[in-house]
Amino acid sequence: MDGQRTEFDNLITDADPDDVAGPQEVKGNVVINDPDVPGGARGTMEMLIEYVNRYAAVKDELVRLGAEKLLSELEDIHTKVKESMYDGGPSMVYDETSNWEASFSAPRSSDVWDLEKFRKALKPAQRKRYIVDAISPGAVKDGFANGDLTRARLEKQGAVRKEFGSRSLSIRERKKKKSDQPVAVR
Hints:
The chain has about 190 residues and is mainly α.
């Protein structure tokens, strides 16, 4: 991207710092608008912006070279090989021409517990430590679907509350907006 400007760069450069609400700092062509970000985090913000910019450049280059179709084909082939090998095929295939191979790793495992047998194997004090009554989320979801349960009633009685997990990350090109308003980076 040496010397090349992207549309993203132009949008940010054209931003007038006076048009951005709140305390801000202008670094190069980036307006950082966050009063709660300590000084060290500003460097992190710039680094993240560089990563997003590089991601966009790589994605554009893949499209320009036509490699995006090749990457999609690779995914399709991988899926077909996996399905074929998984459905009773060999656990390893080797191509002498390319010197590439496809092989399954050792299967992952997890424990499957028999609650009644486990309960019988424990002393009463151990049962209290290791066995917990639990709600079946799948059954509750079915209860919501068939009308047997209502989330509102359960929330009102304190039986359920919403707890947020981790957020997912997506890196993609922004959709063009109708107006050319300045972009503030938080």
